[in-house]
Amino acid sequence: MMKALTLMKCERCSVLFLKNEGDQELSFTKSFNLTSSFSHTSSESGSAPLVSNGIMDYVASRGEAVNIPDAYQDPRFDSESDKVLGIRSKSIMCVPIWDNHHEIIAVAQLLNKLDGHPFDEADEQLFKAFAIFCGLGINNTLMYSEITKAMAKQSVALEVVSYHAVVSEEDVESLKASPIPAVEDLDLKAFTFNDFLLNRDEMLTASISMFESMGLVSKFQIDYETLCRLMLTVRKNYRNVAYHNWRHAFNVCQVMHAMLTAGGLAEKMSSMEMLVLLVACLCHDLDHRGTNNAFQQKSQSPLAKLYGTFATMEHHHFNHAVMILNNQSHNIFSNLTNEEYSKVMKMLKHAILSTDLTLHFQIRKEFFSLASSGEFDRNDKKHREMLRGMLMTACDLAAVTKPWEIQKKVAELVTSEFFDQGDKERAELNLEPAALFDRRRKDDLPEMQLGWIDSVCYPLYEALVKVEPRLAPLRDGVSANREKWLKLNEERKSSMSVQSDEDRAMAGSTDSGGEDPSSVTAEYREEEALRRSFDSIEEGPSSPKAPPPTPREVKAVHFQEPLFERRGLTSKRHSITGRPFDRRLKVQTSISERQIIVSRKWRSYEEKGGEGAQS
């Protein structure tokens, strides 16, 4: 664009890209503008509003170059564009930009020759050549982007294939032959259900039981062997990470089942919606690596390159689910019509992507408003879609609603996985992790849990209760667990307060400026008495009335800090050993000069056999 301004000697150059919408109405998706330094207009260079002056639309639709000497005399020109952009169009030249498939992908436009004359034929030929080079550059950029995506996709696919194995027919036959327990026997309709009571295989039969109890297997004519193979393959495609594993997927599915049955939501949902929601719950974290979306972006992983920055992992989970379901031996939707299948896959994608909290926060305000005002309408298509999204998030976070022992155990698993990510960020990316992922702040867990409950969890379950009062046990479970976390947080703060008081007391006792003069006087007296004892030891005992210090007294001196050091007159290292004094603990880290003197004089006195030597 800079070259075009220079070569064509004009005020402004613009390139607008077209949306790739097939036969739909023509529209532009992005614009780039550059203004000559010799221009008298106030327009800034760079990205600008997507405003077409009518000429661009004409060129994009016809594929013809246009050279207009006076814009305001041409009926195709829309003068409103000048007002929006803050410019004054005079002469205009606009040409289409083609890709390698001879399709128009953009238009380029020049405005106002600097000499005030219109663009001539030579200018037109030169600008058409410029447009060809623009097309080549844009096409190469798009091809590079496609290659990068393809390489990332290949990398992800190879990793997935190398990690996950196809389930064996023996496993399928074994599951087919296994007895399926009734949901009542396992208490699968209960909001307080404890999934830790089941092992990996029992969770498979429990999952099948939920599908059967709701009549979904018969309703959609699902082949039983296909259902068994799907369950086994889904389980196989969860990695062995601390929290986002097969157990978590099963737990999310169980909560959805409880909300639909005991919570009464089955009365508000179609059979197809319920089938999609149960499948989405089981598949919502497929191939989770134990790291979140932010980590994928920070590490520039193949997943981030493939799916971008929006709901990176959630897109991967959905695509992984599609990959499994596309295998005919796993496709439990095979008996649906094409229209039904398309509808199911659209709902499945929305359900899985809804577990991304970024998307949740985008729609929850509107949903909360509908719930609070009583305006939620289950017959409204948009309202139903929002409800399904909220239910997915509610099931994903449902561990916070469970009895305390379950909630506490799950919280430990979650933080373990988060801390592992934080360790990776430090070790591999050289980054300081956020508080939630920082192992060094593990003692802050109660406080962080309170913030999590207050900002995310409780408002969600409170809104769902307004839509369906029979979901109240979930909200009440959150409240009960909040009280537990609050108690732990208060105990932690109390413990920290006691420790702080002790530290302040210790610091105050070592502060020379805060010492009691009477204690200093006593120390002077003690020091003076000790000096006289030293003198008596050196000269020998003069009288039984003035005995030398006992070994216990001398030993006590060995663990006392000299008076001059206690008074803060010096903080230098010891003149003999070169080691520092530890003033905070009031214990000397090495033997002082006077202690050495005491020891030497005491040994000398013992050698003389002085009186009191054996006392």
UniProtKB/TrEMBL annotation:
- EC number(s) per entry: 3.1.4.-
Which GO BP terms apply? signal transduction
Q: What are the catalytic residues?
A: H244
Cofactor(s) this protein requires: a divalent metal cation
Q: Where is the composition biased (Basic and acidic residues)?
A: 523-535
Which residues are Zn(2+) 1-binding?
A: H248, H284, D285, D396
Q: Cofactor binding mode, per the note?
A: Binds 2 divalent metal cations per subunit. Site 1 may preferentially bind zinc ions, while site 2 has a preference for magnesium and/or manganese ions.
| InterPro entries the UniProt entry points to | GAF, GAF-like_dom_sf, HD/PDEase_dom, PDEase, PDEase_catalytic_dom, PDEase_catalytic_dom_sf, PDEase_CS
Protein name as annotated: Phosphodiesterase
Q: Which organism is it from?
A: Branchiostoma belcheri (Amphioxus)
